[in-house]
Amino acid sequence: QVPLVESGGGSVQSGGSLRLSCATSGYTGSNYCLGWFRQAPGKEREGVAAINWGGITSYADSVKGRFTVSRDNAKNTLYLQMNSPKPEDTAMYYCAADHCPSWWLNPRTYNYWGQGTQVTVPS
């Protein structure tokens, strides 16, 4: 499988904005869902946002209204626009892909993962 490759992480101040990208060329097609997940030190990996081929989205309650997931199918790229981030958003962010599972934000239902990109929001 072609690897998923995240980019765009870094340090961002609270109230700022950051956009993560993920190259998804090996996971095109209408039966794939793409998702963003994150894992903070000492915590379990959790779902942040996911999107299907048609653009239907799902968000964790903690990021609704602040983060936006999108995909450019022509460019084979997944995005996560992070607006007004908070210190509690600090984590390693991963993109993932799989045939659309029943639970789009459950990391256990995805088999294909990128290496992650670190996002830090200083207190």
Number of strands: 11
Biggest sheet: strands, sense, closure?
Answer: 7 strands, mixed
Helical fraction: under 10%
User: What oligomeric state do the depicted chains represent?
Assistant: single chain
Shape: globular
Q: Give me the secondary-structure category.
A: mainly beta
What's the pLDDT, averaged over the residues?
A: 94
User: What portion of the residues fall into strands of 2 or more residues?
Assistant: over 45%
- What ranges have pLDDT less than 50 throughout 5 or more consecutive residues? none
Radius of gyration, whole Å: 13 Å
Helix/strand order: EEEEEEEEEEE
Number of helices in the DSSP assignment: 0
Distance between the termini: 39 Å
Written account of the structure:
The protein is an all-beta fold. The chain has strands spanning 5-7, 10-11, 17-23, 32-39, 46-51, 57-59, 67-72, 77-83, 91-99, 112-113, 117-120. Strands 2, 4, 5, 6, 9, 10 and 11 form a 7-stranded mixed beta sheet that branches. A 4-stranded antiparallel beta sheet has the order 1-3-8-7, with no helix packed on it. The protein is globular and about 40 Å long. The relative contact order is 0.31.
Features:
mainly beta, globular, 123 residues, 11 strands
Task: Summarize the structure in short.
This protein has 123 residues and is mainly beta. Helix content is 0%, strand content 46%. It is built from no helices and eleven strands.
Task: Please specify the SSE layout and strand pairing.
Blueprint: E1 5-7, E2 10-11, E3 17-23, E4 32-39, E5 46-51, E6 57-59, E7 67-72, E8 77-83, E9 91-99, E10 112-113, E11 117-120
Parallel strand pairs: 2-11
Antiparallel strand pairs: 1-3, 3-8, 4-5, 4-9, 5-6, 7-8, 9-10, 9-11
